[in-house]
Amino acid sequence: MTTIRVVLNGTAVEAPVDDPRRSLLDFLREDRGLTGAKFGCGQGGCGACTVLVDGDRILSCLTLAVQVDGREVVTIEGLGEPGALHPVQAAFIAHDGFQCGYCTPGQICSAVGMAAELERGLPSRAAADVAVAPAWSPPEVRERMSGNVCRCGAYNGIVDAIVEHFADPARSGS
Description:
By secondary structure, the protein is an alpha+beta fold. It folds into 2 domains: about 1-80, Beta-grasp domain (Ubiquitin-like (UB roll), Roll); about 85-170, [2Fe-2S]-binding domain (DNA polymerase, domain 1). It is about 30% helix and about 15% strand. The protein has helices spanning about 25-30, 75-80, 85-95, 105-120, 140-145, 155-165; strands at about 1-10, 10-15, 50-55, 55-60, 70-75. It has a 5-stranded mixed β-sheet with strand order 2-1-5-3-4. Strand 3 (about 50-55) and strand 4 form a beta hairpin. It is globular.
């Protein structure tokens, strides 16, 4: 048995992990009762399990729980709360950026992580010139969010929500 120490949604947690091969997704859902991150494909192809680790988006189905020892993990449950939604959650609602909602937690966590990537100036395949800071354009967002699959096809609302929220300089960083 291994014990990991993480800051989980703002709270320091010390928890046993009975199998060092246990995925972070299973640890979050089964051991901690945080069911926002979903099991989708188990292969890292759909993004339903996306969470933030030290501010970077990761696929929790492909990450071992022991790999986050000493790190900060934020799930959808840690981004907002009833009556005080995270601004990206509110933007998804305003733009109908979901239908069934299964992929929505991963989409929102991915959007928050993507914002940090853009703020650091990390280029993507959509960038015409990697020497120029990327802009919040629909093609840029679509490329960066391409690892998150929505089986309902709510992509237009998802992209609109992300672009509108993050393209506003007053909202940058949230």
